[in-house]
């Protein structure tokens, strides 16, 4: 009998260990791996989005510079004073001709002085006169035989941008020059009197984008219509065949390409003025390598924690098995047989919570808090609820009260939030109305939707210089035909009684507080996003 009891104890212990491994250890490590992969994908998308914003801002800055140069040249080329002077030049006395010469050279100096991106500017007339603000390195006859002269006169547009690698286009001895040519017409816009040629200061111009870095080694540069880099030489030169597929794009395009067995993220933004492209290139791995290293470190730590917790469970089971009598052990075995699955699910749930909280503290770079939490678990053995620290009690209470009904309908609720500052850029009670009613509308839609899995997601995060509040539901997807009218006054998707404020009123509250609201729909569901600008210190 004693031998049988001992044998049964060993069998029971082995059985418990196997169950623990199957229901706790394997899910823990599987969860760590899934979270790791998911986090990397999210970081990758966020980094690519940040790169997209960086390219757009760089393009806008570059566009302002191009517009400024064009305005400086156009203002003088189209001025009635210059056109009238050139048209009547040979009808005037020599002293007046001299005054015109002085006036033109003075204006050229003023243009070069007022616009730091113009290093030199030349005015050439059809009657073979030339004016400049510096040393003339352009022969009139050579210019009239040049490719640029032909192109500007064949072009219906009065202005032409170009980059000359060898000087052949302008028929000059200058190499690697970037310039803009503008026709000077008579007062009736019938005939061409001359041409303004403004040479761009390459160093100043390329500083608008070459000093902007994407990650550690990523770069931004400009290519022409032949997909050849101009103005600056890049470290990462993308082969032409890789660019041909996206060359026809009229707006910003971001793709992932492979160059010599390495993946790169490449962005291409057309620059219509000189038929070129602003291009950004960065190794894909570099976008999130620091995050990847940090995640690997945290995953190792979490794995150690999981093993420690598993060993702790085994020790507890072993101590209990030693303390109880054979009679109690018999009862305990019966209890395990009946309740084991329930207990294991509880352990799994509880320890998943512990690991997720510890992982969250580590990702927030609070290792001391993680160690403190672990000590509390070991000493007290208490379960701690995972909490989303919004930092504003009124808002937390309103949100959690509103979502309590959703739990009754079996809706999966996911809340992701950063801690908000005490001073918000929006009236607190207006913000509560906005969020509560967006959540009510989402819950109402989920209640009446057909589907096995229903999810409500609430996210609060910062993006650039804005605080973003997002409420989304995975089903039902809002039809395309009503998305543009959903914020209109009096609009309703059905004839049923409203469960919250109409979206028109919500939008009015958002606008009242200087924010804006938008609807985005994708395969994950409907996303209502409310943006408020952050308060500046």
From TrEMBL:
Domain of life: Bacteria
Signal peptide: none
Gene3D superfamilies according to UniProt: 1.10.287.130, Histidine kinase-like ATPase, C-terminal domain (3.30.565.10), PAS domain (3.30.450.20)
Annotated ranges, domain Histidine kinase: 346-536
This protein's record includes keyword Calcium: no
Any one Gene Ontology molecular-function term assigned to this protein's record: phosphorelay sensor kinase activity
InterPro entries with a match to the protein in the record: HATPase_C_sf, HATPase_dom, His_kinase_dom, SPOB_a
Transmembrane segments: 12-36, 300-321
Keywords: Kinase, Membrane, Phosphoprotein, Transferase, Transmembrane, Transmembrane helix, Two-component regulatory system
Record-linked SMART domains: HATPase_c
Protein name from the UniProt record: Histidine kinase-, DNA gyrase B-, and HSP90-like ATPase
Organism: Caloranaerobacter azorensis DSM 13643
């Amino acid at each position: 009998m004693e031998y049988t009891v001992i044998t049964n104890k060993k069998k029971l212990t082995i059985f418990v260990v196997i169950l623990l491994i199957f229901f706790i250890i394997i899910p823990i490590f599987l969860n760590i791996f899934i979270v790791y992969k998911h986090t990397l994908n999210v970081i990758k998308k966020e980094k690519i989005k940040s790169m997209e914003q960086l390219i757009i801002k760089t393009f806008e800055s570059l566009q302002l510079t191009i517009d400024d140069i064009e305005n400086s040249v156009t203002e003088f080329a189209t001025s009635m004073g210059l056109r009238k002077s050139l048209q009547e030049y040979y009808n005037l006395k020599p002293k007046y001709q001299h005054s015109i010469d002085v006036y033109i050279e003075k204006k050229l100096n003023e243009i070069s002085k007022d616009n730091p991106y113009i290093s030199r500017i030349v005015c050439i007339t059809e009657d073979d006169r030339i004016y400049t603000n510096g040393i003339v390195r352009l022969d009139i006859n050579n210019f009239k035989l040049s490719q640029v002269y032909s192109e500007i006169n064949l072009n219906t547009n009065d202005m032409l941008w170009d980059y000359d690698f060898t000087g052949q286009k302008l028929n000059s001895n200058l190499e690697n020059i970037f310039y803009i040519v503008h026709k000077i017409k008579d007062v009736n816009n019938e005939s061409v009197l001359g041409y303004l040629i403004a040479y761009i200061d390459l160093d100043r111009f390329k500083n608008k984008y070459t000093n902007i870095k994407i990650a550690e080694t990523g770069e931004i540069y400009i290519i022409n219509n032949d997909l050849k880099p101009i103005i600056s030489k890049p470290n990462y030169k993308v082969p032409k065949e890789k660019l041909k597929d996206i060359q026809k794009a009229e707006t910003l395009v971001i793709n992932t390409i492979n160059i010599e067995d390495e993946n790169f993220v490449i962005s291409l933004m057309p620059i219509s003025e000189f038929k070129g492209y602003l291009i950004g290139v960065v190794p894909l791995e570099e976008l999130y390598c620091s995050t990847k290293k940090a995640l690997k470190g945290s995953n190792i730590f979490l794995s150690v924690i999981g093993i420690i917790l598993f060993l702790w469970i085994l020790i507890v089971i072993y101590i209990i098995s030693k303390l109880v009598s054979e009679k109690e052990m018999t009862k305990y075995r019966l209890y395990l047989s009946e309740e084991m699955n329930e207990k294991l699910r509880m352990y799994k749930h509880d320890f998943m919570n512990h690991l997720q909280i510890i992982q969250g503290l580590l990702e927030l770079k609070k290792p001391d808090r993680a160690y403190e939490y672990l000590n509390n678990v070991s000493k007290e053995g208490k379960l701690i609820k995972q909490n989303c620290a919004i930092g504003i009690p009124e808002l937390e209470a309103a949100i959690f009260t509103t979502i309590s009904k959703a739990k009754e309908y079996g809706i999966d609720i996911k809340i992701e939030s950063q801690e908000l500052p005490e001073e918000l850029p929006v009236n607190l009670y207006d913000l509560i109305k906005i969020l509560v009613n967006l959540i009510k509308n989402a819950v109402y839609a989920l209640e009446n939707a057909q589907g096995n899995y229903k999810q409500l997601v609430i996210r609060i995060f910062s993006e650039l210089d804005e605080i973003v509040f997002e409420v989304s539901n995975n089903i039902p997807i809002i039809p395309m035909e009503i998305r543009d009218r959903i914020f209109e006054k009096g609009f309703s998707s059905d004839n049923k009684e409203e469960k919250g404020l109409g979206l028109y009123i919500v939008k009015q509250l958002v606008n009242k507080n200087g924010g804006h609201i938008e609807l985005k729909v994708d395969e994950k569901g409907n996303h209502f996003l409310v943006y408020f600008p952050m308060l500046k210190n």
